[in-house]
Design goal:
Length: 324
């Protein structure tokens, strides 16, 4: 009781240097929270001062009318990032959580599609969905069964597992020390703990065969403040298709800001295609526009480049596959 949560739609804001009013929610950031829920999942927070009921009705109607864009889908991401929350209890520090956060932010800013792999969905079959698996520093506590999954994955896909730091698997699941001779993953690439972001991204490119730069471009030359996520529809339930979600974060902060969205012009978003996959059409949907729009695209090797004339706040582009 007595608490009121606020939304900070862009990370890195120094809350100590600005007033609360400059950080508080306005009508546009209220809608941004719904766009984030659509693109990345999870919940949302609305301050009802900003006509939250109207926003909820608008977005609920959009979800109901376009349920096929969200139902029976699985995340489409060529990069897997290990994010084991229980590592905190082996050493009682946040080294791993901080490493996951830093890497996730770097990938998000560059438009690299990735998914977090947690303890409860770690399996050989799941890891083999990715073109590359990144193990951020601080994964120190692993059971013998978990360690064996990494070994088998690295052996099957040589060079695609990148392990950062020299403390990997140095303890078992009960935080008992594991001898160095019994914790190695022979076919994995071992990277220095202090490897820089640019060097790490280059290693990811080499391991996955996919670019990690220039994936989002827009008019003006600078990288746009756009978040991207993608899902693949179940071929049995929804026809084989990719759903590419785009969120524009270039919105004004502050309770007293009432400007319209600053649209991203001439956005080009590059998305890796599944093996043997050929697009047939691309259509954009959004609760922010009255009509669905055909999207121009071209294919370069196994990459799809979507050309969006203007992104106001949110779009989801359904890319349908050619029938086999």
């Amino acid at each position: 009781r007595g608490m009121r949560l606020g939304l900070l739609p862009r990370p890195g804001t120094d809350a100590s240097a600005v007033t609360r009013a400059a950080l508080d929610q306005n009508a546009l950031t209220a809608e941004l929270s719904l766009a984030e829920a659509a693109a990345f999942g999870g919940g949302y927070k609305l301050d009802l001062r900003w006509d939250g009921a109207r926003l909820i009705r608008t977005w609920r109607a959009f979800f109901a009318e376009h349920a096929g864009l969200f139902r029976d889908t699985d995340i489409w991401a060529p990069i897997g990032v290990i994010a084991f929350g229980e590592q905190f209890f082996c050493g009682l520090d946040k080294a791993h959580q901080e490493a996951v956060r830093d890497l996730s932010n770097a990938l998000l800013e560059r438009g690299v599609l990735f998914d977090l792999v947690h303890e409860d969905n770690l399996s050989l079959a799941h890891l083999q969905k990715f073109r590359a698996i990144i193990v951020p520093r601080g994964v120190r506590s692993l059971s013998a069964a978990q360690l064996e999954i990494f070994r088998r994955c690295a052996a099957a896909r040589r060079g695609s597992v990148l392990i950062i730091g020299d403390d990997f698997a140095s303890f078992d699941e009960r935080c008992r020390p594991r001898p160095a001779a019994r914790r190695g993953v022979a076919a994995a690439q071992s990277l220095a703990r202090d490897i820089g972001t640019d060097a790490l991204l280059e290693k990811i490119t080499q391991a996955s065969g996919l670019p990690t730069a220039g994936l989002l471009a827009a008019k003006g030359g600078r990288p746009p403040a756009v978040g991207i996520n993608a899902f693949r529809a179940s071929a049995s339930g929804n026809g084989d298709a990719l759903m590419v979600h785009l969120v524009n974060y270039d919105v004004p902060l502050g309770a007293d800001r009432n400007e319209p969205p600053r649209p991203v012009r001439d956005l080009v978003a590059t998305v890796p295609l599944p093996p043997g996959w050929h697009p047939a059409s691309a259509v954009a949907f959004s609760p922010c526009t009255a009509e669905d729009l055909r999207v121009e695209y071209d294919v370069h090797g196994d990459e799809l480049r979507l050309r969006i004339p203007a992104l106001a706040l949110y779009q989801v582009v359904r890319v349908s596959a050619q029938p086999h």
